[in-house]
Write a structure and sequence with these properties.
Elements (H helix, E strand, L loop, with lengths): L2 E7 L3 E7 L3 E5 L5 H10 L2 E6 L5 H4 L2 H7 L4 E4 L9 E3 L4 E4 L4 E7 L8 E5 L2 E5 L2 E2 L2 E2 L7 H12 L6 E4 L4 H11 L4 H15 L7 E2 H7 L8 H11 L6 H13 L2
Parallel strand pairs: 3-4, 4-5, 5-6, 10-13
Antiparallel strand pairs: 1-2, 2-3, 7-8, 8-9, 9-10, 11-12, 13-14
The chain binds zinc ion (ZN).
């Protein structure tokens, strides 16, 4: 049985530690200090670092962790990752034998040019691409790429648990509610997320089926989202990529 624990870092990052009480893999250690504290407290032996993309709040702890432990560093082949030992791309598989876990690699460019996700054990580690009720900003790729990446993630099984890297859910849900006000699944999610955040409980992992029902960036073919995008842009946007592009820009200024 694997545990997947959110180590908190910075203002709103989660560093996911996948472990079986003995061995641990660390996803996107932006900072080493809270990870080292958790490993020591739980008496865990780390066996791998898994980076999704090059941003410092996802990789900034790599060097310091390697001063205490020897382990491979997995990450996107096409990005500059500190201490990278295994560059990965679409259809590669990471075998973590100590955890009896295989993770398939998905290329999901958009937030950064080489961003990857790890999928295995019904869990998805998708960095800053798919967020709970939102998606990452498009820094290096195109809106078309980001849309395709989100569609690729949305095609995974409905029961997939989504482990993204930031606690952005409440602000994401406010935007979603503004453009998809008559969605009953979203109204229910607002109640649940507000309650979780009131008690400082992480809103993650999310479930992919709930994302498909409530996340506007996965719902660009739905009439409510198309209508909102048209009203905001004062244009007739019919294809999902144009709708996605409009609401992604809108969210930046919301
Ligand atoms: Zn990022």
């Amino acid at each position: 049985m694997l545990n997947i624990y959110p180590v908190r870092a910075f203002k709103d990052n989660y560093i996911w530690v996948i472990h079986n009480q003995h061995y641990a893999a660390i996803v996107d250690p932006g900072s080493a200090t809270p990870v080292l504290a958790y490993l020591q407290q739980q008496k865990l032996q780390p066996i791998a670092i898994l980076n999704t993309h090059h941003h410092n709040d996802h990789t900034g702890g790599n060097v310091t962790l390697l001063q205490s432990y020897t382990m491979p560093v997995y990450g996107p082949a096409n990005e500059n990752i500190p201490e990278l030992t295994h560059g990965l791309k679409e259809s590669d598989v990471v075998h973590l034998s100590e955890l009896s876990l295989d993770l398939a690699v998905l290329d999901i460019p958009g937030h950064t040019a080489g961003h990857i996700a790890y999928y295995g054990g019904k869990s998805l580690f998708c960095g800053d691409t798919l967020f709970a009720c939102g998606c990452g900003r498009i820094f290096e790729g195109t809106a078309q790429q980001m849309y395709a990446s989100l569609q690729k993630l949305a095609s995974l099984p409905d029961e997939t648990l989504v482990y993204c890297t930031h606690e952005y859910t409440l602000s994401n849900i406010r935007f979603a509610s503004a453009i998809d006000a008559s969605n009953p699944a979203l109204a229910q999610r607002v109640i649940e997320v507000e309650e979780q955040r009131k008690h400082d409980i992480p809103t993650l992992p999310s479930i992919l089926a709930i994302e498909k029902a409530t996340n506007p960036f996965l719902r660009c073919n739905q009439s409510a989202i198309i209508h909102a995008a048209n009203q905001h842009s004062r244009k007739i946007l019919s294809d999902p990529v144009s709708v996605f592009t409009e609401i992604r820009k809108w969210k930046d200024t919301f």
